[in-house]
Amino acid sequence: MTALSAAEREALGERLGNRRQTLRAEIQTQLANSDDPRVVGLKNELAATEDWVLADILGDLDIAMVTRDIQELQEIEAALARIEDGSYGTCRDCGEPIGWPRLNAQPTAMRCIACQGAFETARGKPGPPTL
Ligand SMILES: [Zn+2]
């Protein structure tokens, strides 16, 4: 697998950035319409916060209606951070380039297909964690 070109990396970064904006808007809309007391208590902070460290707080609260969006947002934040630090597009397990086809399909991918397969097998997906 060849490494991403600068143009490919840039295109994926733009898609990730756009998706981040969409997710933030969705989450804010959902929270604005929520009467969950934990959310109501956070609303002022949410309105005042630009950098979305609150995504972590919300993730911890495990508010069902936004959990999936928050998870995706965190994956996107992580991917954007990897673009910043230059590690984006490199498999975290084997260090090989992840490659355009996989990243184009899943821009937040952290592993190449082979390592992702091994990871999921080791973790025993799918389904809830077993004791
Ligand atoms: Zn790998």
Textual characterization of the structure:
The protein has helices at residues 6-32, 37-48, 54-61, 64-85, 100-105, 113-123. The relative contact order is 0.15. The chain is an all-alpha fold. The protein is built from six helices and no strands. The chain has one domain: Four Helix Bundle (Hemerythrin (Met), subunit A). The mean pLDDT is 85. The structure holds zinc ion. Residues 91, 93-94, 96, 111-112, 114-115 line the site of zinc ion.
Range of strand content: under 5%
The profile of the biggest β sheet is: none
Mean pLDDT: 85
H-E order: HHHHHH
Number of helices: 6
Small ligands present: zinc ion
Compute the CA-based radius of gyration: 17 Å
CATH class: Mainly Alpha
* CATH structural fold name: Four Helix Bundle (Hemerythrin (Met), subunit A)
Low-confidence stretches: none
How would you describe the shape? globular
Looking at how many chains there are and whether they match, the oligomeric state comes to: single chain
Helix content: 55-70%
Structural class: mainly alpha
**Looking at this structure, what is the CATH superfamily?**
DksA, coiled-coil domain
